[in-house]
Write a structure and sequence with these properties.
By secondary structure, the protein is mostly helical. Helices cover 53% and strands 0% of the residues.
Length: 188
Amino acid sequence: MTRGPTLSAHRLPHLPGRVAAPALPEQARTPPSPNPLEGFNTASAAAAHHLLLGCLRSLRWARRVADHRPYPDLDSLLAASDEAAYDLTPGDLAEALADETLPTLPDGTYSAAHTALSAAHAAYEARFGHVFVICLAGVAGEETLDRILEGIRSRLANDPEEERVVAAEELRNLARGRLLEMLGGAGL
């Protein structure tokens, strides 16, 4: 049995109007620290905002999390992140969703899967007006495509308000995972 060609990982094309996080001047970057949480706690406000915007592109969320430093431990930081994410207004949510990218498919995914995923993303974006977001933490690579397609299909049945709540929860989970990754995992 021959298989179809494979394509590189599914990525969102560059869209005009998207703004990347500006590079920080050398003096505003977080100084290296043996403890990443300590480095985050002692970073300048500009560096902390920049780091946080890499986790979730909501200015309000980043400001709230950065302004409550220092955090005594990782759990406190994650709790503050969650609380700030729960308080996202519809405008904050739109801001964060506008900068999210489509989930990446594993290398070696077949072109038919890319076609199915592109069609599902288009249907989702047409219905809700923003990119589909899903947290895939803990999902094995070989299950990624199925989980994404299953998520899109089931969430297309949501009404817009229900989907806003689900998308906000997915963003909260993504921000939490990105914070953990930024700070080197839970082993602080």
